[in-house]
Design brief:
Blueprint (H helix, E strand, L loop, with lengths): L3 E5 L4 H12 L3 E6 L2 H5 L15 E4 L17 E4 L10 H18 L4 E5 L10 H14 L4 E7 L3 H12 L3 E4 L5 E2 L4 H10 L6 E6 L4 E2 H12 L5 E4 L4 H9 L3 H13 L7 E2 L5 H12 L1
Parallel strand pairs: 1-2, 1-4, 2-3, 4-5, 5-6, 6-9, 7-11, 9-12
Antiparallel strand pairs: 8-10
Bound molecules: NADP nicotinamide-adenine-dinucleotide phosphate (NAP).
Protein backbone atom coordinates (compact mmCIF):
# COMPACT_ATOMS: atom_id res chain seq x y z
CA UNK A 1 0.00 0.00 0.00
CA UNK A 2 1.91 3.06 -1.19
CA UNK A 3 -0.76 5.68 -0.74
CA UNK A 4 0.19 8.84 1.11
CA UNK A 5 -2.41 9.95 3.67
CA UNK A 6 -2.39 13.45 5.15
CA UNK A 7 -3.47 13.36 8.80
CA UNK A 8 -4.65 16.59 10.44
CA UNK A 9 -5.02 16.60 14.22
CA UNK A 10 -2.36 13.89 14.26
CA UNK A 11 -1.27 14.72 17.82
CA UNK A 12 -4.75 14.28 19.32
CA UNK A 13 -6.24 11.23 21.04
CA UNK A 14 -7.89 9.92 17.87
CA UNK A 15 -5.25 11.33 15.47
CA UNK A 16 -2.46 9.38 17.17
CA UNK A 17 -4.41 6.11 16.94
CA UNK A 18 -5.21 6.87 13.27
CA UNK A 19 -1.52 7.40 12.46
CA UNK A 20 -0.64 4.15 14.24
CA UNK A 21 -3.32 2.20 12.34
CA UNK A 22 -2.38 3.71 8.96
CA UNK A 23 1.29 2.91 9.52
CA UNK A 24 0.43 -0.65 10.57
CA UNK A 25 -1.52 -1.10 7.31
CA UNK A 26 1.46 0.10 5.23
CA UNK A 27 0.27 3.62 4.33
CA UNK A 28 2.73 6.52 4.18
CA UNK A 29 1.65 9.14 6.71
CA UNK A 30 2.12 12.87 6.30
CA UNK A 31 1.38 14.32 9.73
CA UNK A 32 0.25 17.94 10.11
CA UNK A 33 1.33 19.09 13.57
CA UNK A 34 2.01 22.16 15.65
CA UNK A 35 4.90 20.53 17.48
CA UNK A 36 6.92 17.57 16.26
CA UNK A 37 8.45 17.25 19.69
CA UNK A 38 5.11 16.69 21.44
CA UNK A 39 4.03 14.34 18.63
CA UNK A 40 6.98 12.11 19.41
CA UNK A 41 6.13 11.83 23.10
CA UNK A 42 3.32 9.43 24.10
CA UNK A 43 -0.12 11.05 24.25
CA UNK A 44 -2.51 10.99 27.21
CA UNK A 45 -4.97 8.13 27.87
CA UNK A 46 -2.62 5.55 26.32
CA UNK A 47 -2.53 7.23 22.89
CA UNK A 48 0.70 6.26 21.11
CA UNK A 49 3.78 8.30 20.30
CA UNK A 50 4.16 9.05 16.58
CA UNK A 51 7.90 8.33 16.66
CA UNK A 52 8.85 6.07 13.74
CA UNK A 53 5.30 6.08 12.30
CA UNK A 54 5.41 9.23 10.18
CA UNK A 55 7.04 9.47 6.74
CA UNK A 56 6.70 13.28 6.42
CA UNK A 57 6.11 16.03 8.96
CA UNK A 58 4.53 19.38 8.17
CA UNK A 59 4.27 22.11 10.78
CA UNK A 60 1.04 24.05 10.41
CA UNK A 61 -0.77 26.91 12.08
CA UNK A 62 -4.46 26.74 11.22
CA UNK A 63 -4.86 30.44 11.92
CA UNK A 64 -2.47 31.15 9.05
CA UNK A 65 -3.76 29.52 5.81
CA UNK A 66 -0.38 30.10 4.08
CA UNK A 67 1.04 27.34 6.30
CA UNK A 68 -1.63 24.92 4.97
CA UNK A 69 -0.81 25.63 1.34
CA UNK A 70 0.20 22.41 -0.46
CA UNK A 71 -0.18 20.31 2.68
CA UNK A 72 -1.98 17.85 0.35
CA UNK A 73 0.40 18.12 -2.65
CA UNK A 74 1.15 14.67 -4.02
CA UNK A 75 -1.01 12.99 -1.36
CA UNK A 76 -3.78 10.50 -2.11
CA UNK A 77 -6.24 11.07 0.73
CA UNK A 78 -6.85 13.17 3.83
CA UNK A 79 -8.06 12.19 7.30
CA UNK A 80 -8.90 15.03 9.67
CA UNK A 81 -9.29 14.54 13.42
CA UNK A 82 -8.62 18.24 13.87
CA UNK A 83 -10.82 20.04 16.38
CA UNK A 84 -10.81 22.10 19.54
CA UNK A 85 -11.48 20.06 22.67
CA UNK A 86 -9.33 21.22 25.61
CA UNK A 87 -7.32 23.77 23.61
CA UNK A 88 -7.92 27.45 24.10
CA UNK A 89 -9.08 28.45 20.60
CA UNK A 90 -12.32 29.22 18.85
CA UNK A 91 -13.98 26.10 17.36
CA UNK A 92 -15.11 28.32 14.48
CA UNK A 93 -11.48 29.13 13.61
CA UNK A 94 -10.23 25.55 13.89
CA UNK A 95 -13.09 23.04 13.42
CA UNK A 96 -14.65 25.08 10.61
CA UNK A 97 -12.10 27.44 9.03
CA UNK A 98 -9.02 25.28 9.70
CA UNK A 99 -10.66 22.20 8.18
CA UNK A 100 -12.01 24.32 5.32
CA UNK A 101 -8.51 25.58 4.41
CA UNK A 102 -7.33 21.99 4.37
CA UNK A 103 -10.30 20.87 2.25
CA UNK A 104 -9.59 23.64 -0.27
CA UNK A 105 -5.99 22.48 -0.44
CA UNK A 106 -7.15 18.86 -0.94
CA UNK A 107 -9.44 20.03 -3.78
CA UNK A 108 -6.62 22.07 -5.41
CA UNK A 109 -4.28 19.11 -5.23
CA UNK A 110 -6.78 16.50 -6.46
CA UNK A 111 -6.99 14.29 -3.34
CA UNK A 112 -9.27 11.28 -3.86
CA UNK A 113 -11.06 11.59 -0.50
CA UNK A 114 -11.32 13.56 2.72
CA UNK A 115 -12.47 11.69 5.83
CA UNK A 116 -13.65 13.96 8.63
CA UNK A 117 -13.98 12.94 12.26
CA UNK A 118 -17.12 14.82 13.28
CA UNK A 119 -19.40 14.17 16.28
CA UNK A 120 -22.86 12.65 16.76
CA UNK A 121 -25.83 15.06 16.94
CA UNK A 122 -23.96 18.11 15.57
CA UNK A 123 -26.93 19.03 13.38
CA UNK A 124 -29.09 19.78 16.41
CA UNK A 125 -26.49 21.40 18.69
CA UNK A 126 -26.45 25.16 19.25
CA UNK A 127 -22.98 25.48 20.83
CA UNK A 128 -20.25 27.03 18.71
CA UNK A 129 -18.49 23.66 18.67
CA UNK A 130 -21.53 21.92 17.15
CA UNK A 131 -22.29 24.76 14.74
CA UNK A 132 -18.66 24.80 13.52
CA UNK A 133 -18.63 21.05 13.00
CA UNK A 134 -21.95 21.08 11.22
CA UNK A 135 -20.80 23.95 8.98
CA UNK A 136 -17.70 22.01 7.98
CA UNK A 137 -19.65 18.77 7.37
CA UNK A 138 -21.97 20.68 5.03
CA UNK A 139 -18.96 22.16 3.16
CA UNK A 140 -17.49 18.69 2.81
CA UNK A 141 -20.79 17.30 1.45
CA UNK A 142 -20.65 19.94 -1.29
CA UNK A 143 -16.98 19.35 -2.15
CA UNK A 144 -15.80 17.73 -5.36
CA UNK A 145 -13.53 15.57 -3.19
CA UNK A 146 -15.30 12.42 -1.94
CA UNK A 147 -16.25 13.29 1.64
CA UNK A 148 -16.60 10.67 4.35
CA UNK A 149 -18.02 11.83 7.65
CA UNK A 150 -17.58 9.74 10.78
CA UNK A 151 -19.87 10.77 13.64
CA UNK A 152 -18.56 9.20 16.83
CA UNK A 153 -20.25 9.03 20.18
CA UNK A 154 -17.91 10.01 23.10
CA UNK A 155 -14.34 8.73 23.39
CA UNK A 156 -12.90 6.65 26.21
CA UNK A 157 -10.47 9.55 26.81
CA UNK A 158 -13.28 11.94 27.68
CA UNK A 159 -15.15 9.44 29.83
CA UNK A 160 -12.03 9.37 32.00
CA UNK A 161 -13.14 12.78 33.30
CA UNK A 162 -15.88 10.96 35.24
CA UNK A 163 -13.09 9.05 37.04
CA UNK A 164 -11.30 12.23 38.10
CA UNK A 165 -14.52 13.56 39.58
CA UNK A 166 -15.35 10.24 41.28
CA UNK A 167 -11.88 10.23 42.88
CA UNK A 168 -12.80 13.53 44.49
CA UNK A 169 -16.09 11.97 45.58
CA UNK A 170 -18.05 13.97 43.04
CA UNK A 171 -20.51 12.90 40.40
CA UNK A 172 -23.44 14.54 38.72
CA UNK A 173 -26.17 13.86 36.20
CA UNK A 174 -28.48 16.19 34.37
CA UNK A 175 -31.98 15.28 35.60
CA UNK A 176 -32.20 11.52 36.00
CA UNK A 177 -29.17 10.92 33.72
CA UNK A 178 -31.19 8.60 31.47
CA UNK A 179 -29.67 9.75 28.15
CA UNK A 180 -27.42 7.08 26.70
CA UNK A 181 -23.97 7.01 25.13
CA UNK A 182 -21.71 4.25 23.76
CA UNK A 183 -18.15 5.59 24.03
CA UNK A 184 -15.48 4.21 21.74
CA UNK A 185 -11.75 3.53 22.21
CA UNK A 186 -9.47 5.60 19.94
CA UNK A 187 -7.87 2.45 18.51
CA UNK A 188 -11.27 0.95 17.57
CA UNK A 189 -12.31 4.22 15.92
CA UNK A 190 -8.98 4.34 14.06
CA UNK A 191 -9.47 0.78 12.77
CA UNK A 192 -12.93 1.78 11.53
CA UNK A 193 -11.51 4.88 9.80
CA UNK A 194 -8.66 3.05 8.10
CA UNK A 195 -11.04 0.29 7.01
CA UNK A 196 -13.35 2.81 5.30
CA UNK A 197 -10.82 5.15 3.66
CA UNK A 198 -11.64 4.26 0.09
CA UNK A 199 -15.45 4.31 0.34
CA UNK A 200 -17.51 6.80 -1.67
CA UNK A 201 -19.03 9.93 -0.07
CA UNK A 202 -21.10 8.87 2.92
CA UNK A 203 -21.45 9.22 6.68
CA UNK A 204 -21.53 6.80 9.60
CA UNK A 205 -22.63 7.07 13.24
CA UNK A 206 -20.26 4.95 15.30
CA UNK A 207 -19.82 4.05 18.95
CA UNK A 208 -18.24 1.35 21.11
CA UNK A 209 -19.60 -2.01 22.30
CA UNK A 210 -20.97 -0.78 25.68
CA UNK A 211 -24.10 1.41 25.81
CA UNK A 212 -24.70 3.10 29.18
CA UNK A 213 -26.85 5.90 30.53
CA UNK A 214 -24.95 8.83 32.07
CA UNK A 215 -26.21 7.64 35.44
CA UNK A 216 -24.67 4.20 34.81
CA UNK A 217 -21.41 5.86 33.69
CA UNK A 218 -21.23 7.74 36.99
CA UNK A 219 -21.91 4.51 38.90
CA UNK A 220 -19.17 2.75 36.93
CA UNK A 221 -16.67 5.54 37.70
CA UNK A 222 -17.39 5.26 41.46
CA UNK A 223 -17.08 1.46 41.29
CA UNK A 224 -13.70 1.72 39.52
CA UNK A 225 -12.23 4.18 42.04
CA UNK A 226 -13.74 2.22 44.95
CA UNK A 227 -15.57 5.15 46.54
CA UNK A 228 -19.10 5.39 47.86
CA UNK A 229 -21.48 6.84 45.29
CA UNK A 230 -22.46 10.50 45.69
CA UNK A 231 -24.25 11.60 42.58
CA UNK A 232 -25.72 15.07 42.43
CA UNK A 233 -28.77 15.53 40.19
CA UNK A 234 -28.65 18.85 38.37
CA UNK A 235 -32.29 19.84 38.02
CA UNK A 236 -33.32 20.96 34.53
CA UNK A 237 -34.50 24.31 36.00
CA UNK A 238 -30.93 25.32 36.80
CA UNK A 239 -29.75 25.08 33.20
CA UNK A 240 -30.90 28.54 32.17
CA UNK A 241 -29.24 30.41 35.05
CA UNK A 242 -26.08 28.31 34.57
CA UNK A 243 -25.98 29.18 30.87
CA UNK A 244 -26.76 32.83 31.64
CA UNK A 245 -23.77 33.02 34.01
CA UNK A 246 -21.48 31.19 31.57
CA UNK A 247 -22.49 33.50 28.70
CA UNK A 248 -21.27 36.42 30.80
CA UNK A 249 -18.00 34.76 31.84
CA UNK A 250 -16.16 34.14 28.54
CA UNK A 251 -16.89 32.82 25.02
CA UNK A 252 -15.11 29.58 25.97
CA UNK A 253 -17.19 29.09 29.17
CA UNK A 254 -20.34 29.89 27.21
CA UNK A 255 -19.55 27.35 24.48
CA UNK A 256 -18.48 24.56 26.82
CA UNK A 257 -21.49 24.97 29.11
CA UNK A 258 -23.90 24.92 26.16
CA UNK A 259 -22.07 21.92 24.64
CA UNK A 260 -22.17 19.85 27.83
CA UNK A 261 -25.72 20.77 28.89
CA UNK A 262 -27.02 19.82 25.45
CA UNK A 263 -24.90 16.68 25.17
CA UNK A 264 -25.98 15.31 28.56
CA UNK A 265 -29.64 15.55 27.52
CA UNK A 266 -29.75 13.47 24.35
CA UNK A 267 -28.74 9.98 23.34
CA UNK A 268 -25.43 9.70 21.49
CA UNK A 269 -25.44 6.08 20.40
CA UNK A 270 -23.80 4.98 17.16
CA UNK A 271 -23.52 1.56 15.53
CA UNK A 272 -21.49 -0.62 17.90
CA UNK A 273 -17.97 -0.93 16.53
CA UNK A 274 -14.77 -2.48 17.88
CA UNK A 275 -14.10 -4.78 20.80
CA UNK A 276 -12.36 -2.69 23.44
CA UNK A 277 -14.46 -2.49 26.61
CA UNK A 278 -14.87 0.58 28.75
CA UNK A 279 -14.52 -0.84 32.27
CA UNK A 280 -11.04 -2.41 31.80
CA UNK A 281 -9.88 0.84 30.15
CA UNK A 282 -11.08 2.93 33.09
CA UNK A 283 -9.47 0.50 35.56
CA UNK A 284 -6.16 0.85 33.71
CA UNK A 285 -6.37 4.66 33.68
CA UNK A 286 -7.21 4.64 37.39
CA UNK A 287 -4.33 2.30 38.28
CA UNK A 288 -1.79 4.18 36.15
CA UNK A 289 -2.68 7.49 37.79
CA UNK A 290 -3.15 6.19 41.36
N1 LIG B 1 -13.53 13.69 22.77
C1 LIG B 1 -14.71 13.18 22.46
O1 LIG B 1 -15.38 12.52 23.28
C2 LIG B 1 -15.24 13.37 21.07
C3 LIG B 1 -16.40 12.71 20.67
C4 LIG B 1 -16.83 12.85 19.35
C5 LIG B 1 -16.11 13.64 18.47
N2 LIG B 1 -14.99 14.29 18.89
C6 LIG B 1 -14.24 15.07 17.91
O2 LIG B 1 -13.17 14.27 17.39
C7 LIG B 1 -12.06 15.09 17.05
C8 LIG B 1 -10.82 14.56 17.72
O3 LIG B 1 -11.02 14.56 19.13
P1 LIG B 1 -9.82 14.25 20.15
O4 LIG B 1 -10.44 13.88 21.46
O5 LIG B 1 -8.84 13.33 19.50
O6 LIG B 1 -9.21 15.72 20.32
P2 LIG B 1 -7.76 16.17 20.79
O7 LIG B 1 -7.07 15.08 21.51
O8 LIG B 1 -7.91 17.48 21.49
O9 LIG B 1 -7.01 16.42 19.40
C9 LIG B 1 -7.37 17.48 18.59
C10 LIG B 1 -6.31 17.70 17.53
O10 LIG B 1 -6.58 18.98 16.93
C11 LIG B 1 -5.44 19.83 17.11
N3 LIG B 1 -5.84 21.21 17.44
C12 LIG B 1 -6.80 21.60 18.32
N4 LIG B 1 -6.82 22.94 18.41
C13 LIG B 1 -5.83 23.40 17.60
C14 LIG B 1 -5.35 24.70 17.25
N5 LIG B 1 -5.87 25.79 17.80
N6 LIG B 1 -4.35 24.77 16.36
C15 LIG B 1 -3.81 23.66 15.84
N7 LIG B 1 -4.21 22.42 16.12
C16 LIG B 1 -5.22 22.28 16.99
C17 LIG B 1 -4.69 19.28 18.31
O11 LIG B 1 -3.33 19.72 18.24
P3 LIG B 1 -2.46 19.84 19.57
O12 LIG B 1 -2.16 18.41 19.98
O13 LIG B 1 -1.24 20.58 19.12
O14 LIG B 1 -3.30 20.58 20.57
C18 LIG B 1 -4.87 17.78 18.09
O15 LIG B 1 -3.97 17.30 17.15
C19 LIG B 1 -12.42 16.51 17.51
O16 LIG B 1 -12.88 17.25 16.41
C20 LIG B 1 -13.54 16.29 18.51
O17 LIG B 1 -14.43 17.40 18.59
C21 LIG B 1 -14.54 14.16 20.16
Amino acid sequence: MNETIVVAGATGYVGRHVVEALDAEGYRVRALVRSQESAQAPGPFGAPSLRGRVAEWKTVNYSDPTTIRDACAGADRVVSALGVTRQNASPWDIDFLGNLSLLEDAERNGAASFLYVNVLNCESGTSLTMRAKHAFSESLRRSRVAGQIVNPSGYFSDVSDFLHLARKGLGFTLGDGAAQINPIHGADLADFIVGHLAEPSTSWDVGGPDTLSYRELEELAFRVVGRRRRILRIQPGIQRPLQWAADRTSPRASNLTRFFLESLKIDAVGTATGHRRLEPFLREVHQSSA
